[in-house]
Specification:
Layout (H helix, E strand, L loop, with lengths): L27 H19 L3 H8 L3 H10 L11 H19 L3 H9 L9 H7 L1 H16 L3
């Protein structure tokens, strides 16, 4: 079967590739601020200290405290450092809990209660290792997919 050449629609003038359009350009300063804003929201909703966030992320407490007080995390490239990836896992956990429970008290209770499916308390599991953090995220993603 012959293939036909694909032509640009005539209505588009000077189309830009997606990655070079101004709306999709990676801005490390903006990304660093957005992540800190998200961490501050999580901190307020879950009533967690900066030290508790740091312990969950397996980062030095003074690093997380500095990021929170400066209002930004230094990001140097679109390829995310493992520390930033850990933060994204924690934010995804919080996103799932926000979707499952409107009340922050219920979110905190879920994190502090032993679950037979996890065979652990989520907070403890997350603070023991990065693998535990990822496991809790995967579990919540699965549970949300099943309609929990």
């Amino acid at each position: 079967m012959p293939t036909l050449p694909i032509k640009q629609p005539l209505s588009l003038k000077n189309p830009l590739p997606l990655l070079t359009s101004p709306s999709s350009t990676f801005n490390p300063t903006l990304a660093g601020r957005a992540i800190v804003d998200s961490l501050k929201y999580l901190q307020q909703r879950l009533e967690w200290s900066g030290a508790k966030i740091a312990k969950t992320l397996h980062l030095p407490a003074n690093t997380v405290t500095t990021w929170l007080s400066n209002g930004s995390i230094p990001i140097h490239s679109p390829v995310l450092h493992p520390d930033i990836q850990a933060i994204i896992h924690l934010l995804a956990i919080h996103r799932s809990l926000e979707a499952m429970f409107n009340d922050p008290a219920h979110q905190r209770m879920w994190l502090a209660t032993s679950h037979p499916e996890l065979n652990a308390i989520p907070e403890k599991l997350m603070s023991e290792s990065l693998e535990g953090l990822i496991f809790v995220r995967q579990y919540l993603d699965y549970a949300r997919g099943k309609g929990a």
